Amino acid sequence: MGRLANKVAIITGAGGGQGKAEALLFAKEGAKVVVTDVQEEKVKLVVEEIIQNGGEAIGFFHDVSSEDKWIQVVKDTVEKFGKVDILVNNAGITIQKSLHETSVAEWNKVMDINLTGAFLGMKHVIPVMMENHGGSIINISSIAGLTGGSGASPYTASKGALRLLTKATAIDYAKHSIRCNSVHPGYIETPMTKDMFTNEQMMTWFKSNTPLPYLGKPEDIANGVLYLASDESKFVTGIELPIEGGYSAV
Ligand SMILES: NC(=O)c1ccc[n+]([C@@H]2O[C@H](COP(=O)([O-])OP(=O)(O)OC[C@H]3O[C@@H](n4cnc5c(N)ncnc54)[C@H](O)[C@@H]3O)[C@@H](O)[C@H]2O)c1
To answer: What is this structure's pTM?
Structure first.
């Protein structure tokens, strides 16, 4: 309890999956949480659950690829809670297709949400963090951003670019005590992956390529994100934290 006491955190894509697990854990650890997602009903449910558990939260419909929405979310957060200490750029999508079958529209959509969305979040939150003399940004990349992934070229490209955008941000804003790190989940049981895990061939491949051969839970990621969000990691910036059962060690 209290590892994020007095902190204000914006978490995108927090209506379900990993973002929801992070929102619930952050609130339990004392943060005031801003829950955002394009799934408005789910946002409401997460906010209600946090409040029922005695925490503090507000929620917004928020498409991370829209700069106007980012400006509004940051403004509303500062109006309500006075500052932003933590930004978790978690929202993401994937399209499973061969590169030569991927349309430009599909490519752009994945890039707009996974990469431009995180860029816009940082662009509009960093000035608020600078005024507050510090902050912690966590960008949710993927193992696909470390080692490459099969059958999802725009996803892999977006997550690889997010990894280096994170390091560039860490270097440039350390002088303002703003830290920026990326987290690289392996295969985690969430709505995003539910179809993959009913595929027997995929599961066999996964198990033979992962030293800890089971699927991660959203909470496994949330625990790592909590560490990076908290002051316990105050000397940590520009790192890439794989949480993936040893997948990238092989
Ligand atoms: N599940 C995995 O195995 C896995 C592995 C590696 C990385 N990741 C990454 O983890 C993050 C969380 O994914 P998840 O597994 O919880 O999946 P998820 O599908 O449950 O969560 C993604 C959330 O992002 C939201 N979203 C989609 N488009 C949006 C937009 N334009 N603006 C705002 N929100 C939007 C969705 O509504 C959803 O709630 C993603 O960035 C994903 O790429 C997931």
So the answer is: 0.98
Confidence of residue 21 (pLDDT cuts 50, 70, 90): very high
Between the alpha carbon of residue 141 and those of residues 84, 96, 209, the distances in Å are 21, 17, 19
For residue 174 the two structure tokens come to 């350390």
- Ligand 1 contacts CB of residue 196 (under 6 A): no
| C-alpha pair distances (Å), 166 with each of 88, 95, 140, 159 | 12, 23, 10, 10
**Over the stretch 147-159, which tens digit does the pLDDT of each residue have?**
987 899 999 999 9
Residue nearest to atom 7 of ligand 1 (CA): 142
**22 within 8 A of 222, measured Cβ to Cβ:** yes
Is residue 75 within 8 Å of 122, Cβ to Cβ?
Answer: no
CB-side exposure of 247: number of CA atoms within 13 Å? 25
* Pair of tokens at residue 161: 């670019």
Cross-strand pairs, 87: 10, 137
Residue 192 CA: which ligand 1 atom is closest? 19
DSSP H/E element including 203: helix 200-208
Q: Catalytic: 247?
A: no
- Report how far residue 135's alpha carbon sits from residue 230's, in angstroms, rounded to the nearest whole number: 10
Cα(69) to ligand 1 centroid in Å equals 18
Q: Which atom of ligand 1 is nearest to the CA of 141?
A: 7
Residue with tokens 């419909």: 61
